[in-house]
Amino acid sequence: QVQLVESGGGLVQAGGSLRLSCAASGSISSIYAMGWYRQAPGKQRELVATITYTAGTTTYADSVKGRFTISRDNAKNVVYLQMNSLKPEDTAVYYCNNKDLRPWPQGRDYWGQGTQVTVSS
After folding, report:
1. What is the pLDDT along the chain (121 residues), one digit of tens a residue?
2. What does the alpha-carbon distance between residue 96 and residue 38 come to, in Å, rounded to a whole number?
3. Residue 93 and residue 105: Cα distance in Å, rounded?
4. 114 and 97 Cβ atoms separated by less than 8 Å
5. What are the beta bridge partners of residue 38?
6. What whole-number distance in Å separates Cα of residue 110 and Cα of residue 87?
7. Are 5 and 98 in contact (CB under 8 A)?
8. In what order do the strands lie in the sheet with 18-26?
9. How would you label 94-109 residue by residue, b for 16+ Cβ within 10 Å and e otherwise?
10. Burial (Cβ within 10 Å: 0-12, 13-18, ≥19) of residue 113
11. Which is nearest to 48 in space by CA: 69, 28, 24, 23?
């Protein structure tokens, strides 16, 4: 089992910044990727950004490219999402995700409890 604890959400004005953190604990030895997803009211959960554990390869949704940066600190088992130039449409609950190789072969996703990000215009 992997436990994920998020922090850093809140209320910010448009154009502002926030940094989200997600700390992982438990059986994390087979985690191969981490990421952030978000879900706005009435919408489906969508991918925001991902990063691989070993190489640090990143991917971003087109809507956040150039504004958000995902990073990780493997020594601390923490993944971050630096969000700059925030827009009202970034308002959502943000969820941390870890992808586990186990149980092989299908693997498993772990999710945090979510943290609210609200951007006022």
Report:
1. 999 999 999 999 999 999 999 999 998 889 999 999 999 999 999 999 999 999 999 999 999 999 999 999 999 999 999 999 999 999 999 999 999 999 989 999 999 999 999 999 9
2. 9
3. 30
4. no
5. 46, 94
6. 28
7. no
8. 2-7, 18-26, 78-83, 68-73
9. bbbbbbbeeeeeeeee
10. exposed
11. 69
pLDDT tens sequence across 49-74: 999 999 999 999 999 999 999 999 99
* Cα 3 to Cα 24, 32, 35, 63, 85, distances in angstroms: 6, 15, 14, 28, 30
Q: Residue 7: what residue type?
A: S
**Counting every residue, how long is the chain?**
121
Tokens 């959960």 locate to 45
Q: Which of 60, 17, 54 is nearest to 35 (CA)?
A: 60
